[in-house]
Amino acid sequence: MLYHVRMDVHLPPDMDADEKAALLEREKAYSQQLQREGKWPHIWRIAGEYANFSILDVDSHDEVHQLLSGLPLFGYMDITVTPLAKHPSDIKD
Amino acid sequence: MLYHVRMDVHLPPDMDADEKAALLEREKAYSQQLQREGKWPHIWRIAGEYANFSILDVDSHDEVHQLLSGLPLFGYMDITVTPLAKHPSDIKD
Amino acid sequence: MLYHVRMDVHLPPDMDADEKAALLEREKAYSQQLQREGKWPHIWRIAGEYANFSILDVDSHDEVHQLLSGLPLFGYMDITVTPLAKHPSDIKD
Amino acid sequence: MLYHVRMDVHLPPDMDADEKAALLEREKAYSQQLQREGKWPHIWRIAGEYANFSILDVDSHDEVHQLLSGLPLFGYMDITVTPLAKHPSDIKD
Amino acid sequence: MLYHVRMDVHLPPDMDADEKAALLEREKAYSQQLQREGKWPHIWRIAGEYANFSILDVDSHDEVHQLLSGLPLFGYMDITVTPLAKHPSDIKD
Amino acid sequence: MLYHVRMDVHLPPDMDADEKAALLEREKAYSQQLQREGKWPHIWRIAGEYANFSILDVDSHDEVHQLLSGLPLFGYMDITVTPLAKHPSDIKD
Amino acid sequence: MLYHVRMDVHLPPDMDADEKAALLEREKAYSQQLQREGKWPHIWRIAGEYANFSILDVDSHDEVHQLLSGLPLFGYMDITVTPLAKHPSDIKD
Amino acid sequence: MLYHVRMDVHLPPDMDADEKAALLEREKAYSQQLQREGKWPHIWRIAGEYANFSILDVDSHDEVHQLLSGLPLFGYMDITVTPLAKHPSDIKD
Amino acid sequence: MLYHVRMDVHLPPDMDADEKAALLEREKAYSQQLQREGKWPHIWRIAGEYANFSILDVDSHDEVHQLLSGLPLFGYMDITVTPLAKHPSDIKD
Amino acid sequence: MLYHVRMDVHLPPDMDADEKAALLEREKAYSQQLQREGKWPHIWRIAGEYANFSILDVDSHDEVHQLLSGLPLFGYMDITVTPLAKHPSDIKD
């Protein structure tokens, strides 16, 4: 099932540089693993903002929460999750 | 280039049924033509709302405006357009 | 799966009384049928407002959209849908 | 009487880990005790957010305030309380 | 139990004058009856706005909904209801 | 003259306990003195929130500002003040 | 006592021209009479909007409500009233 | 002096086609005349919305109000005006 | 030209007392000097809030920005500036 | 292609003066270089606020994100980006 997610990241500007780099590295690895597993089919940068729109494809609300709350950046994020249904005009099966 | 679009439709509840059906038919045909042309790669129904998230893939802001303002339902919609950049974690080329 | 739904109803104050009564009758029958089927485990009136909080229990986003967009009052409603996961403190299995 | 409550938790990301674990432990015990007493019939995690929707069943506004302001996490929360009445379509007695 | 209520009235400016006068007359009588019964201890006009703050004193959420949804002006109102608890500084018993 | 006031208190969760207790003690004494003087006829706790609705009865805007800005908690509060007029339905003189 | 007032006017675009002209004439006369009486010391047009900021100088909340609710345009307005106190930096007596 | 203006147009979807065409024709002529006079140096379409951002260059607030309130579409618009100062980084004189 | 300004001050509650006193002293002197020069004809305290409405009378947007950004408290303020035009009902020349 | 950008800067009031001066120096140089390259045709100070409206002229969403996220002040900013299309009334080619 598809979930539309908006993630806004708020890192303190005076965060220790090494700590920040390590955190972002873990975040990238975490996300790319899920992308390879097909659970995170789309991730787009909102141009000009430290935020992204993503589409997650998982089997339940529990799994979407587990996935998102497991993000290394979770504690620095505002997140909104919107369930997506099939649109009647969608030509894809 | 990718644009994230949210469209909320507000049709008057007491709209003439035939007029409404014809309007929606034209809207569907318009959208599906653009989908076939690859300009409208994604359209998802926001579950529970008369609204959708879409991803449009066109070459310029002028084209995205032309496409959206040409929607038969345009006059009944609230629309927000957000430009999308490539996310550094995106594993797709 | 559980979905939290808020529904705000906006009926025109000068709506024809008979039409309104018939519409509400259909709405009640529609809802109660789904409640009997176990798909609508909770519906509460927000005190003082023509609105309700509901918990729906269905198998997919498509089904929750189908259920909500099929409401006789759908065209007169503002609806927000929030997916619910199991809370770590919840003592229920 | 039933109260619908939304609780959003904002813990500082750099909170001491042990302190945080102890606080959450107390929060869980506090909530589960009230659940066993039947005063907290429902608690759901809002998928993707550090927030929950809950239904509390207590006898007065004073009691609901006492219950909520006694939460170990109270000082880190934004809370909204909405009184719930019986919905005319509710098939439950 | 005390409920704080804000009521904003939106009457169509071109409403028939007699109809409006009759409606307001019924509203006044309805409110004053409840005030005499002690269920509506306070009603204040928000200066400059067609709105009021009220304090209702009733025994349950069902009763507060019944009271408010029975207002002749209910269909023309935006209403927000907030449950009130005893304040620790309140010198009144 | 009556003023409706909403006060939301935001104390830092990690405030020194003694300092907090002393501050709240001063706040309570300050409020109760004004209540005894009849300038603060009502104070209600908004159930579930560190906030209150109050009705102040003073002779001028200057006095209401002086009263509120003199609150020991003033620096930790968001405050909104709304002037109240007599409601045409109010049965009290 | 001084009250800061914002008035936003929403006239239906298809209002009868003569009716509109007469209404605005009455509004202007009403306002200018109060200005001459010193009760309406300031009225400024918010540039680009059908709205104004005004300062009213009257003796009570009741009077400010009476003045504003008596405006011929009252039914077409959104109004917000804010009580003003003397600023400690104000060099005027 | 420069003013940043956002104009959102809300035309009733069922407006008479001829009337609408004539109105838009007058609007276009009005705007283009001011552009030729150098008072309206920039007008951009907000992609996907019936709205524009404009930069007006006039000598006073009175003139900017006169210009905007004279727009044929003024009665169908939400307008926000923001005064612009020279930015310290601006390399233009 | 007249500008309507709203200034909301947010000073950290735990600011050093002497530093705060000195800052406010500079702010008062700065404002009163401009008042004496006729550039700040009105400053009113919003009753109950650490905020003010002001009317500034200066010759350009650059000057209003210079004036406001020069306020000692500027870094602790949220400021909104609205250009004011002459109201057609204003009886003052 | 043109992008409308609003940038609101939030620098901590107690930031080290030298650090702040150096940061602003880098920001100015960064912006002026892009202005000289024709990628940043307009930058205006929003009068009274530590914010600006800018028009960027770049070839893609990726480039606009790269440009904005490269701003030395990026971590202290709230940014909104709006794609601009050609307005039908625009007399410029």
Automatic annotation (TrEMBL), chains A, B, C, D, E, F, G, H, I, J:
List the pathway annotation. Answer: Aromatic compound metabolism; beta-ketoadipate pathway; 5-oxo-4,5-dihydro-2-furylacetate from catechol: step 3/3
Which reactions fall under this protein's catalytic activity? (S)-muconolactone = (4,5-dihydro-5-oxofuran-2-yl)-acetate
> Which Gene3D superfamilies does this one have?
Dimeric alpha+beta barrel
Give the superkingdom in one word.
Bacteria
Provide the family line: Belongs to the muconolactone Delta-isomerase family.
GO terms classed as biological process: beta-ketoadipate pathway
Q: What is this protein called?
A: Muconolactone Delta-isomerase
EC number of this enzyme: 5.3.3.4
Listed A to Z, the keywords are: Aromatic hydrocarbons catabolism, Isomerase
